[in-house]
Structures are given as C-alpha cells and as structure tokens.
Amino acid sequence: MKKELLSLDPLSRRHFAEKTAAAAFGLSLMPSMDEAMAATTTAGKAKHVIYIYMGGGMTHLDTFDPKPGAETQGQTGTVSTGVAGIELSEYMPDLAKRFKDIAVVRSLTQKTGAHGGASYWMQTGYQETPAIRHPNMGGWAQKALGKMHPQLPDTIYVGGGGPGSGFLGASYAPLPIGDPSKGLPNSKAPVKKPRMDERLAALEGFNQSFLDKYQTEDVQAYSQFYDNTLDFLKGKDLDVFDLSKEKKEKRDAYGNGFGQGLLLAKRLVKTGVRFVRVTNGGWDMHGDLWNRGPGKINGFSKGIATLIDDLKAEGLFDETLIVLTTEFGRTPKINARGGRDHHPRCFSAMLAGGGIQGGQVYGETDDKAISVKEDPVTPQDFSATIATALGLPLEKRIFAPNGRPFFVANGGEPIMPFFS
Amino acid sequence: MARFALSTLLLLVFLTSALQAEDMRTWTDTQGREVEAKLVGFQQEIVVLQMKNGQEVRFPVTKLSEKDRGYVRENAPIDRRTAARQIDQMVWERLKEANLEIKQERAAVLANKALDSAERNKQLARLAHMEKMTHPTAPMTDEQFLRRIYLDIAGRIPTYEEARDFLRNPNKNKRAVLINQLIQSEAFVSHFFNYYSDLLRIRDGISMGGFNNLKSGAYVDWVKDQVRNDRPWNEFVTEMLQARGYLWENPATGYLLTDYGMELCNLSNTFTTFLGTEITCAQCHDHPFEDVYQMDFYRMAAFFGNLDFKKTPGKEKMASINAAKKKFSQQAKKAEKNANDVNSLLDAYAMYIGDGAENQIRLPFDYQYDDGEPNGKVSPAAYFGDIIDLEKYGTPREAFADWATSEKNPRFTVNVVNRLWKHVFGIAQIEPVYNIPGHLDGQAQNYELLKFLESLMKEVDYSVKDFLTILYSTQTYQREACHASPTLDMIDKGEFHFPAPVLRRMSAEQLWDSFVAMSVAKPEASSRQRRVLEPYKEIMATDWSKIDFAQAERLRGRFNNLGNPAVMMTESGKKAQGPVMIRASEMRLPNGVGSFLYAFGQSDKKFIENSNTDGTIPQVMLLLNGSMTNQILTAKSRSVVQAAQAEDSHDEGIDVVFLSILSRRPAPQDRDYAESLVRGGQGSAADYSDLIWALLNSHEFMFIQ
Lengths: 420, 705
Hints:
- The complex is a heterodimer.
- By secondary structure, chain A is of the alpha/beta class.
- Helix content of chain A is 35%, strand content 15%.
- Chain A has 12 helices and 16 strands.
- In chain A, the strands form 5 sheets. An 8-stranded mixed β-sheet of chain A has the order 6-5-7-1-8-11-4-12, with helices on both faces. Chain A has a two-stranded antiparallel ribbon with strand order 2-3.
- In chain A, helix 5 (115-124) runs parallel beside helix 12 and helix 10 (258-270) packs parallel to helix 11 (289-313).
- Chain A is globular and about 75 Å long.
- The model of chain A is unreliable at 1-36 (pLDDT under 50).
- Chain B is mainly alpha-helical.
- Among the domains of chain B are: 19-77, SH3 type barrels (Roll); 639-704, no CATH class.
- In chain B, helix 7 (174-183) runs antiparallel to helix 19 (464-473) and helix 27 (640-646) runs antiparallel to helix 28.
- Chain B is globular.
- The two termini of chain B are 32 Å apart.
- At the A-B interface, helix 1, helix 2, helix 7 and helix 8 of A face helix 12, strand 7, helix 25, helix 26 and helix 29 of B.
C-alpha cells in the first residue's frame, strides 16, 4: 500500500494522512467525549482563562495538600475549609474561606524532575522534544474557537515567559508583559500629538509607492498590523494596561507584584482577552522554606481570593476559569537546608470559576504525600480539564506544518466531577 | 524536456574537477591540425588556450578532438559566470514552459461549457495570478542591488559610506566585486553563523546537555571558524557526526551535545537537517505516507547506539580529578567556604564524547510489528542509499557519517543545495525543505535545475561560499523581488518557477544588525571579541593537583566570565548606557523573552529553523515608540542626524538620511514628503529625527526588495 502512495502528489499525500491518521495513531481507542459531555451541565461555560503559573515547583504539602501530623509536614499547620476532612495550609486562610468556589486537584503526577521539561509538559500537555514545539492552551483555544479580541492577542503572558504558540505560528503568539505595574512596553508615543501626526502622514506618503508595487500577503499583513496597532494605541483599550486607573484600595487588596498581575489579568479578561497567564515564580525552595514560604503562600492566597471576589462583583466569575498549577511538587522529606527538593510523583493544582463546581477535592496522595493513592491526574488530563471547561474539541486533529497530527490535551481525560 | 536534459548534460560535462591546467600540451582539432598550448579558460563553450609565446587563442570546444574535449572536461576551471548564466537559462526555459502550460489551461477553461460562470471566473483568476508569476521582474537597479546584497550576504544594510561609495563607483564589474568582497568579509561570518545557529539550534548562554560547565561558546567559536574558512559542507557535517573528545578540545562535539540525553531525537534532527528527511514519526510507528518503517528508524538510530557521552578516557584521569575535588573540599572547609562551585567545573571531565563497546539501541517496549521483538536489539543499517559495510569503520557512527555525506547519498547534496537556494531566493526548489521525497522528478519546482545545482555543489567541492557566489551572480537573483506572492498551493504543487526572489521581511538579526550599521561606523569591529575556545582550553588544561583552592576559585571566576555576552538591551530593564550596538551573532543566543530580537522572531534555538518573520503588535510598538528607534535618533557615536545637518543644504541632508536608512537617494515624491518635514522647521535636529523615524517605520525599510 505504501508504495502506491509515493505516486500521489503532495496534496493527496497530505489528504491521505488526514484520513489515515486516526487508524495509524490508535485514536479509535480514545474515549468518546460526546458521551462524557452529554452527562455534564457546566462544561464549555468558560470564555476566558486566568492561568496562574507557580514557577519552580510549588510545594504541595505547604499549600493544597497538607498532612497534619505527618513527620514530613514540617512547621506548616492547617486551616479548616468548612468541609469536614478537608484542610488547607494555615498560610492560606483567604482561599480556605472561599473553598466552596474552588476545586483542588491533589493527585497530579508526571515523570520529569527538570524544570524546563516539566513546565513545558504541564502547560502544553506534551512532553518536550527537539523535533516540534507544541502550543500553550491559549493557542489551542484560539485555534479551535477563533480569534476573540479584535486587536489584542488572544494570549497574554504577565510577569514571565512560558511555552509559546508552537507550531501554530506567530499569529497565536502570546504578548509578553514584563511588569504589570509598568503597563504595555512602548505604548507611549515618543513625541507629542501634532508632531506624531506629521510623522505618520509622512510615513503614509513614503509607503505609498511601495504598497502600490508589492501586493504580497506579507506586506498586506504587515500593513494590517501597523494599522491595528495604531488604532489600538489611539483607542481606549490601551487604558486596560494602566493599573493606575484602579482605586488604591483595590490595588492594595490584590497585593504587590503578582497580585497586580492578577488585577491586570482581570482587566484584560474584562476587555475581551481570552487567555491571560500570570506567573508567580520563586517556588524552587531547596532551602529555607519556612522563611520564604509562608509570606509568599499567604500573598498568593489573598490575591486569588481578591480576584475571585472581583470577578464575581463584575459578573465574570462564571465565564472565567481560574487555573493555578505548577511543574511539580516538592519532596515530603525536608532536606538539610530546611527546604524541599523536586518531586514530580505528586503535586497539587487548583481550578475555580468558568463552570467548575467548587468545594471539592479530586484525587488523594498517601499519608506522607509521597505518591498518588487515588485518581492520578496526568498533565494531559489536566489540560483536558481546561479544554473541556472552554468547550474545545478533544478529538479534533490539528496538523502541524510538518504534517503530523496533534490533539488539544494530547489524549488526556478531563476530571469530569468538576463539571457536574 | 529533451532540450533541457541535453543542455544540462553539456554543462555537466564542462564543469568538472578543479583547475589543474598548468601544463603545455599538444591540442588537435577535428581536422587533425595541432597546436602547442595550455588551457587557461573555458567559458560559453569557448576554450581559451595560451600558446608558448603567451598569445591567447579562442576555440569552440566542438572543434576539438574527442581526446581534447575529454581533457577540457577533466581540467576546465569552473566559471562562475557561465554557471550563473546556465542557471538563468534553466529558470527562463521553465518559466516559458509554465507560461505555455497556463495559456493552454486557460484555453481549456474557456472552452469548458460545463463550468458555471462563478467557477470559470475563479479558475481564470487563479490562472491569471499564476501567469503573472511566470514573468521575470525588472533587473535590479544598483540601489536595490546594493541594499539586498548587503542584507543577504553581510546580514545588514550598508553604512552610509558603503552605500555612497558603491553608488559612485563607475566600474562596470562592481556588482561582482562587491559580492566577492562581502562573502569574504567578517560580516558574512556573522550573518551565515546566524543561519547555522537557526538550522543547528546553536545556543549560547544556556548550558549544553544540562551541564553548566560545558561552555557552548566554544562550539559557537568553532562554527564561526568553519564559516570564516569556508569549510566544505560535507567535511563540516562529517566532523560533527564523528566528533569525539572533550568539548573544549574538540568543539565539533557541540552538535551531538546539543541533544544530550535525547539521542533518538538527535537522529531525527540529523535527518531533517542534513538529509532533508523528516522521520520523527517513525520513532513511534511506520511513516504513514512515506516508505519509512519504524524498524528503519531504529536501524538508523543504532548507528549512534554506541555513542557514549561519558566515555572519560582512563581511570587514572578520573582518580586524579576526584582527588583534586577532595582536596578542594577540605581546603574550602578550612576557609569556611563551599567547594561545590569549583568542583562542579571538574565534573565537566566526565563529559567526554566517545563510543562504547555495546550498542545501546533497543526497539521500544511496545514494538508492534512482526519484524522485531519489543526491547529487541537492532543492528545499524541504512534504509536508502548505499549499503554500509560496518567492518570498514572503527565505529558505527563513523560509517553513518561517511554514508550520509557521501556524494552518492541521494539526499545529502540535494538537501544542502535546496536549503541554500531557499536562503538566497526565499523559497526552496522542494518545499518543505525537510521533506525531500524519495523520487525527485515531478516534486521539485525545476527538476533539471535541481540536478544541475546538485552537480554544481559537488563541482565546487561543497564550498558554500563558491556556491552562494554563483547564485548571487545570477540574473534571476539580480531582479527586483516578486511583486506578488505565490500561493501556498502553487508552492506545494511546485508551480512557482522563480521569476525573481520573493519579497521577504528582514529577519530579527538583519533588522538588529541594520540598526547597528546605522549607529556605528564599523559594525563588525566587535566580532571575534568573545573568543571562548582558547581560554576555555587553557583553564581545562590546568593540572588541578598542583593548585590550591584559592587558585581554583580564581580560575572558576575566570571561567564564569568566559564569553559573557555583552550587555543586552531588554525592554524591561533598560541599561543606563543604552543598547550595546554589536552584531546579533555576538550576543546571547537566543536573546530571550522581552528582547528586541525575540520580538522580531529570533529562533529560540530549540527547534530547527524556528525563527519567523510574522508581524506582531510588540514589533510595531518597538519601531513606533521603542528605544531602538530612539537609539538611531540620538546615537552619540555616529548620528545620522548629525551627518545630515553637516551637509550644506537640506537637499543633501535628506540624501544622507535616505542613503543611511534606505540605501538610496530619494525619488521626487519622497523629496516632497521629506521636505515637508525638514523645511517645516528649517532642518533642525528634531526635523531630521521626524524624517528618520518615518523611514525606519516604512515598509521599504522592513522588506527586502
């Protein structure tokens, strides 16, 4: 059969590949999402995602998966969530108070202890290979659902980089915002208005003969980008990046640094951006955990609690999925430097809003939080859960430019109890 | 078609091995007449013979005896102009042929009564576009040539002086002279290194193989040297695939180290990069639409199955290293310090790339085909090309390198000429470049031309500089870029036949380096500043048993600073002194999120050819409002504004600005716009800034005509 294929022209070969990929890649074994979806009511409700990434490997024992009484627990105490038998770390009372709104995953597990590979896997659903680059979830959503905001990119990264748009290309690329308090870089014109207008008029003049001669798609796309950006810079959407427009009390409630990123994320979501990733780095606590950890944990808990309240006040909570995740957990065994090391065998994450049924915990680790005891969740499953909240088709093949087929969430299965 | 094949053959006959025609000999023509002379040239089917008295005579090759024609065949020098013309001829023939085919197709569409008018119009529009793409564009003006040849070979626009001098130069041969001068320049090293860095995923500032003590700068230096010295492509590849030893002693090991711990992926990358063949999918299953089986993949992988990254030579060596580490730990403890940092430098001695006795490659645990057992051993074998006799080689990967880079390998030479053609013309003969089909005929845009390029590459002994020089010398190259873009469908079906190079946006590096050319007088002055290899070698040659911890710490400090990238401009953390204007190839690779190069699509160096030239909002904002534009407006070392103001008149000032930024003088309508900005305020610095700003933001600046 394969010999015959060589005589087909490239397009036919590609077509053939699409047709046969299902069989060749064993996809018939995948569960039918239709069946799963039929039983649910809240899947697909999320229109936006605020994706909080805890860079460096967030300790699970000292946040979402404490083991009171275990020798591995260290100095971290617990606080009640109001639900019997479910406690969170004592450093996060604000989230514990809002437990009915959040869903916790305690049984994430993957296989690599290297930051780069692990965070790539968590955020794309695929293991890193030198052969191809996979998109982040924002890129997948844009691919499946189309562009959402007329001018701004659909994916915006606040406070740190992460996986890009991969094989989907630059029109899916995240817009990076370094410091949320400083706003969008280079958004201020270097000269005042009448002079800027003169410059722009001359620019238009200089461009005319070039545009008349070269009518290529690249040139047209580039012109489009210039025009869009100029419109954007003149328009009111630019204000969305300006946190000084917010009241001081609200800015303070979110907290410094990372909290300001959450506030920017909310503003971006409100203006129609689909996927905002906010980085909270510095979790690689190999030493000195109980000096560095408590304040940090308390801060993000407070910030996210404020975000939940704010989204609710704006009526955006039900259509905005909040995701909190990390690349791996940290060793239950406390090392000689008073820290914990890399622990990919089990770790925790959190989901809220966007149709997620709060007040529950999925999965369980053993009594020392060393390994998963029940309901393991892989990075693919976690991606599938986000995709399901957004209503993305898990079984739709997307072809990379090299002709290889890929699926959003890489064949993972969503955590369905979160959608009932 | 027959005519084509014939002309190709003729040329192949003429372009043969290197010039060894020093000797006087007796020549005989078809009528039996004889003359004593030596061969000094061969062009356009004319043999140039020099007689004893020094006089040159020209002779049609067809008038020579069979034996003499054979001699010419063996000894004639390659004439770049002849080769370039031959390429032009083949391109032209193919364009004419395509034009005829399109006309016939149009007639068929018009005659087809079954088509409704909407469908007919759609077809006609498609054919009209295709027909347009069979007409060569106008030859470039000197101004257009100047700008593009600088961007393509030197990787940047010409400086004001370079532009002025070239345009003033009355020499008729000045284009050929410039091509030659640029391709021998340090600017070419910088630009072509960027190309290799993208292709081979060469990164710097990132530890190799996860080891902080392997300075990839050593590999970077080495690759630049290969470009500088025009190392033949086949030797360059062979050396990387066969490399053994420590990185600092043999930096060619950098290629294999790049994928340390991911040897199967390295094999896929090797195929993609050097053989134009994407076989990644066969790692997990038979290729769905090519003749590559999963077993083939593992047999190929088995060539690297003996590869051992920790083949430290000699137990004694390791014992002395361990003794030194122990000594440093003790001394550090006494000084209340930690020896970890120093000792980790010594750990680099474990990374010695060699070959073990046993082949480690096994079939996957879930191998599903009946030609092998799960977890079974496989022996190395090639699935195309020559059969490899392993007995003849010391290690399987030596055998592989020999097979892969052989002139007889059906894909090795085609791959490199196809990639270089793309580098010069913007689109390859076979797209995508990583998917060269088993049967070339019918797949390439121009099969005869591709075969010709393949033979040409062998002819120039895989000299990349010679090959590129020939391509840049063609009229096909020296035309204004295509005014329209071929559709993806046309490229996919091989229906684009190179009426001219396609219009391209500058790469991130070309753009950055052009900014450098506008702000410093000698853009390449800084290159070779950051040599890592020599000091690295020196440090690692230390006899650790003879030094104490304090000395070791000093060495470690020196090591840490080796090849430190120059201060970079990042949007978030602007340095007080402004961006350091050095060539992109001298900066950190890749330059990282938030940098100018990142914003304009520099490759992350993790994947093959992962750069892009797509437009994004941050790019536009960087040019409209960003500090780089500002840098040009206010550069202290060399200011376009100052140069313009130094001229006697506004007209001349405007000329300077146009030459500095667009490498041309202003057209009449440009002058109107420019004057409206400059005269409005009587040519103040601010007025010239406005003009410069507008030109830097123009499409003409960004796109390469």
